[in-house]
Amino acid sequence: MRYSPLITDLYELTMLAGYLEEDMHETPAVFDLFYRQNPFKGGYAVFAGLDTALSYLENLAFTADELAYIQSLGIFRPPFIDFLRNFRFNGRVTAPPEGSVVFAREPLLTVEGTLAEAQFAETALLNIINFQTLVATKASRITHLAGEAKVIEFGLRRAHGPDGGISVARAAYIGGARSTSNVMAGKLFGIPVRGTHAHSWIMAFPDELTAFRKYAEVFPDGCILLVDTYDTLKSGVPHAITVARELRARGHELVGIRLDSGDLAYLSREARRMLDQAGFPNAKILASNEIDEYVIESILSEGGKVDMYGVGTKLATCMGEGGGALGGVYKLVRIGSEPKLKVTSDLSKATLPDRKRLLRAIASDGSFLMDIITLADETVMPGETVFNPANPLQHTTIPPDAHLEELRAVVMDKGKRITCGYPPLDQMADRCAEQLSALPQGCLRFINPHIYKVSISRRLHELRIRLMEEVRRDTETQ
């Protein structure tokens, strides 16, 4: 799928035009993409969207029609339009694998290239990474709580447009929802597609039992019946059992039923009892209707008997406290040979300058202990002192028995991907599940989660303090 370079904020174009006028457009530059607060007031995020982002960068070019539109705006000079005609991304990108568990303030993408090409990528990269990372994180919270129950992504009709629906299905799969109702996502990404039928199917026939029978005739080996159109326990489940018996007599089995309204914990318990007593213990119960991690938690606490969850609106729109948007930012950290940082009165918003490495301290049992951000040419060892990036007075030591693992790698160089192929979504989803299981106890808690330590090395800490002091002196002398 091609992302037009016009999917950008106007100020990216005006800055490019300004850099060209000032002969700065070919100055080497480095930008970091990161976020400042974990989404949903949780303890982590799941990195997603990299493949989409790399595809955007690899195919970045303006068509004649797009150039004509930019020219029609009447705010750019002809030399700038000529410059855009041959504009490409020829830079380098460093990133963790998709499905990695990441944390606030860590550099996710680092983009290096000319000032023009690295700057222009800002809007599209933020659009892609912010949204897919947010959805993957939401999906991971839902699927983690669902446990052995399967989660199906049902969010297309409530997603933010067709493009948003595609991104939701992809990112939700990485987060653990390993099937979708979205047929196009199935085609594009190889995601298994699942679905039942709507209430309108039932209402289109003279009665519920007839509707069930007709659906079972068409799909005898994939029959899941929606049982809450009229009365779930008095008609829906009994009629489903009748059809299940008729299917079995013809050599088929009812796959299950779907509950889409009412008290899902109570209804699922009663439906399970009725199905079991009728001789259908393997018939699955699918619950839908405004499902999220909090609803699942409630269903489980009340003894609900749900085998599958269809999760739509609240996943596709990332509803929930601390959701809605990831809030990722894209900041200049080096230009030419000079490291740069953004300084504010709030130290927690001050950026981390220069090229960097991202390391993870891992215990002998594979559990994660802490992450450390260092300068690119810096080596740190277990036992060394590291600092809290939000509070320089707080420091700790890297556990002496920890193994340090590099979290990121160069994934694109000279505008081309490092590898021809790209890992399948299954591998990304497996990585997500494995890394979630390695987090410290409490990181997956919804309320007051454990705060995972992200620290900066001594040299990075000292560089940051020095640059902040230089900015302060320069400001005072102006």
State which percent range the strand residues make up: 15-25%
Helix residue percentage:
25-40%
Principal-axis shape: globular
List segments where confidence is low: pLDDT < 50 over at least 5 consecutive residues.
Answer: none
Distance linking N and C termini: 49 Å
Count the DSSP helices: 16
* Total beta strand runs: 20
Output the CATH class name of the largest domain. Answer: Alpha Beta
CATH superfamily of the largest domain: nicotinate phosphoribosyltransferase
Quote the average pLDDT: 95
What is Rg?
A: 26 Å
Largest sheet: 7 strands, antiparallel
User: Order of strands in the sheet with the most strands?
Assistant: 12-11-1-5-3-18-19
CATH structural fold name of the largest domain: nicotinate phosphoribosyltransferase
Counted up, domains total 2
Which architecture of the largest domain does the CATH hierarchy give at level 2? Alpha-Beta Barrel
Give a brief outline of the structure.
By secondary structure, the protein is of the alpha/beta class.
What would you say this structure looks like, in words?
- The chain is of the alpha/beta class and 478 residues long.
- The chain has 2 domains: 281 residues, nicotinate phosphoribosyltransferase (Alpha-Beta Barrel), CATH 3.20.140.10; 96 residues, TIM Barrel (Alpha-Beta Barrel).
- The chain contains 16 helices and 20 strands.
- The strands form 5 sheets. It has a 7-stranded antiparallel sheet. It has a 5-stranded parallel sheet with strand order 6-10-9-8-7.
